Amino acid sequence: MTPLPLIDNLEHLPNPFTQFETIATHLKGNSPHLNDPEYCRDLQLALCFIYSYNGSQATFNSYRREVERLLLWSWNVASCPTSQLRRDQIEEFIHFCVAPPENWIGTKNVARFKLYMGERTPNKDWRPFVAHVSKLEFKNGDVPKTKQHSLSQAAIRATFSILSSYYGFLMQEDAIQQNPVALIRQKSKFVKKEVTRKQVRRISNLQWDYVTETAEMLAEEDPAMHERTLFIMNALLGMYLRISELVADERSAPVMGDFIKDSDGHWWFKVLSKGNKERLVAVSDDMLNALIRYRRFRDLPTLPTIAENTPLIPKNRGQGAMTSSRQVRNIVQFCFDRAYERMCEDGMREDADDLRVATVHWLRHTGISEDVKTRPKEHVREDAGHASMATTDKYIDTEYRERHASGRKKALRPN
Q1: 258 φ/ψ angles, rounded to the nearest 5 degrees
Q2: Measured between alpha carbons, how far is 380 from 386 in angstroms, rounded to an integer?
Q3: 213 with 330: CB under 8 angstroms?
Q4: pLDDT tens profile 223-268
Q5: DSSP 3-state of 195
Q6: In the chain, where the domains are located
Q7: 179 Cβ neighbours under 8 A, 6+ residues apart
Q8: In whole angstroms, what is the distance from residue 387 CA to residue 237 CA?
Q9: Class level of CATH domain 205-403
């Protein structure tokens, strides 16, 4: 059967610790399993686990996706609550996720629930899995097909990690005696071990020159629209920001007062990053000049003042801070597309190709990759907010340069 969603968006989800009966009553009409107390308890535990991650919308969504898939499979395929699944059944579930039936796969992201006659109603067009095509394939006119669905290695690793946390929670609640995910000894048959370090996805210095020149040209032609564009591009690369660190969400709203001057006269930018951890990013002279230009355009004093609450990135229309990460993606993509066109016009189509597939996150990678060439990697790690030095080490490509240099002279006809 084609499953219906169980768990609504965070803003529409009542607190399951105190209002579970409301949630269960609302879902019973669409999920007969909930007439059984065991399945009701299963859903309640799952909701409490997921709701514990309500401090971050992205984390909540990730945990909801994995646990909801498990609930739907366990109830509809294994015919038991998730608390009764054995190790071998968890392996069956992973195999199922790798190759789900077509009626479990959608070709576009749709809302889980719709508003119908004043009530949140499960959306029959929703599917637990969604097939995608790459950005380049989409530009070439390709559309997602259910038969082409596949899970990346990163997605499979995330499934194992989140499900292990879920069963750890069930053990703490005395719902199970042991963690079936932890009992799987040969995860390598699902998750391949990386033999070598992956190269970081980034744009070249030439491409960045064209991108930033394009943003500057747009700002000169239409300041009202694109001075903000120029500042966003500089902030994403110059301070290696993630989109979530640039737009306002339920955790924080970046403001001008997040730029802070210390007692030595040095400027820093305060960021609330992944895991609700605060970090300070060193603000370069170029980045400070970009900030000054942006503030002058907005008729603000040259530099921020202590506790200034002016939104860092304002909405195009209306009051307040920008809250849409999609809008930032569209702004960056617009710059990438215009820069690609300019490079092609200048006879550099081959050099421009990466801009057709680049994403916003590539700007963060590019900024870190460039800085780690000249700055102590400990400083770059702190600015980037990496949890370990191993993450920062991924951006050091000296090893690749030396390895390729030693391999260039390999002969096809050895002497």
Answers
A1: -75, -15
A2: 9
A3: no
A4: 999 999 999 999 999 999 998 889 888 778 899 999 999 999 999 9
A5: coil
A6: 10-189, 205-403
A7: 164, 167, 168, 171
A8: 20
A9: mainly alpha
